[in-house]
Design goal:
single chain; 142 residues; alpha/beta; 4 helices; 5 strands; 27% strand
Amino acid sequence: MSNSTHSYEFIIDQHYLLVRQQGVLAKDKIKLTLQQSKPLFEQHLIKKVLLDYRRADLSRMSLIELDDLAQELPRELPNCFIMAITYDPTAEPKIYQHIKNVCSLCSVEIELFTDIGAAKKWLFQQPIPTQRGIFASQNLRL
C-alpha cells in the first residue's frame, strides 16, 4: 500500500517479519499496518519483527500516541515477542528510546538500531521465547 506520505511492505525472512514503513506516520497508519501484518504472524508462526523506520517520520506523534501504540503491540500481535527497530541516525533518538521503554514494560524484548544489518544479525541471534517477559525487563533506560 502507498500514498504520497506513507507506504509499507512485509517481507518474511529467517523467521522474522520485516515491516518497512516510510513517510510521515501517524498512530492510525502504524496501527493499521500492525493489524494487516497479524495474519502473517499467525500463518507463519513468526515470533520476531523488524520495524524499519529509516525512511519514516514519527516526529509529529505525541508521547501519548507513542505510549498507546507500544501498549497495543502485545494485543495486536500477541505472538510477537522480539522486536528490532531501525531508524534514521539523524532522527530524534528519544522518540525511539521512549518506544523501547514502553514496549519493554509490555514484556516485548526490543532493541534499537540505525544499521539494518546489525538489526537483522541481532534478531537472528535471539532465542525464540515461548512467552513474553523472559528478557524484556533488562531493556529499560531512562
